[in-house]
Predict the 3D structure of the following.
Amino acid sequence: MPTNLPPEAKNKWAEVENTRNPRDKIQRMQEFLSLVPQHKGTMKLRGQVKKKMAVLRKEMDERKQKRAGRGGPKLFIEKEGAAQVALLGVTNVGKSCLLGAMTNANVLVSPAPYATREPVPAVMNFEDVQFQLVEAPAVMQGSADGRAWGLQTLALARNADGLVLMVDLSRDAVGQLRLVLGELEKARVLINKPRGKVDIDRRYMGAGLRVVLVGKLLDCTLRDVKALLQSYRIGDATVKISGEVRLDDVEDAIFESTTYRPSVVVANKLDVAGAASELERVEGFVAGRVPVVAVSCEKRLGLERLGTVLFDALSVIRVYTKQPGAREPSQRPFTLRRGATVADLARSIHTDFERDFAFARVWADRLVFSPQKVGLGFALDDGDVVEIHVK
Ligand SMILES: Nc1nc2c(ncn2[C@@H]2O[C@H](COP(=O)(O)OP(=O)(O)OP(=O)(O)O)[C@@H](O)[C@H]2O)c(=O)[nH]1
Ligand SMILES: [Mg+2]
């Protein structure tokens, strides 16, 4: 739906973007909101801006607390392992119980609601890779608007590489899933790959406006896109448009980008009476959009599937490097994402490796001739053995 913002509002948003100081930024956002007409077309936008203000306020608070020596709960958890997976769900679904079953974390499993109030990170082993699971404090109605620790929980979801959405089969599991998905949507996190994507990378003054289109504009021309950006005074930016995109999507991206996070639904408490029919309802609701893994954390049932499903959903691949002349490849793999090339591998080993790269040799079953001599652009796959030769 078009927002049809008046030019004053668009100008004000340009001011917001150019303001660094958080206090001033919040002030300008408030002014912006007063210039936005209150109709259905601007509802989403108004919500988004209010949420941004809440996040800024929270960050200011945190900084203040830090200065006062009271390190409050952290907004981000440092990543470890092949991927960071945020564990989300309403209270009491068994998130802590899952963490306790899959990792060696010391967790508090409790029948009392809202037992976990801070993110708890722990390492989960799967074959020869490690994932970081982070239990997020429970999602509730209103989390995305800043209720309780909601902003922290959703920031964690946005920053993670993937999500486990956990539901409790002893209660209305579809209702729980709906609630969590609703809050994620408000926080601009999608669990399915969108058909199109708009990325606006603001550049230094004088850089000019560059629109890179590697997809299709559904209801507008390139000229419309540029005119829209200019109406928001975005003159120095690289705008990447991929897939199928509408003009509304471009306007959306001006305020905040949407992120996609591969997700897995974990349906817990399979041991309780009536769980099977509840599981059927969950599967019907999910309708194949994301994988569903049914478990009982307490009885340790079905958990072995979780590793494989996460590994696939996150598109992790393992690559084993070999020193030229060595007989055996390394035991510990490098973990990359599906589609990664030899250049990505070289870069993750050492920055010099890409610069001084001569050629690589790859051993893999799928190759007709193995080992094969390849260049930086070669796409790697799970299980490949790679020997990099430098100049
Ligand atoms: N029957 C059954 N109960 C379970 C299972 N997993 C967890 N529970 C129980 O569910 C309750 C909540 O478990 P927690 O792991 O603390 O739940 P949580 O999602 O971490 O909850 P909060 O952190 O408080 O939001 C506890 O009483 C657990 O014993 C299960 O597989 N089956
Ligand atoms: Mg918990």
Remarks:
- Residues 95-96, 115-116, 135 surround magnesium ion (ligand 2) (CB under 6 Å).
- The first helix runs from residue 7 to 17.
- The mean pLDDT is 93.
- Residues 54 and 146 are 7 Å apart (CA to CA).
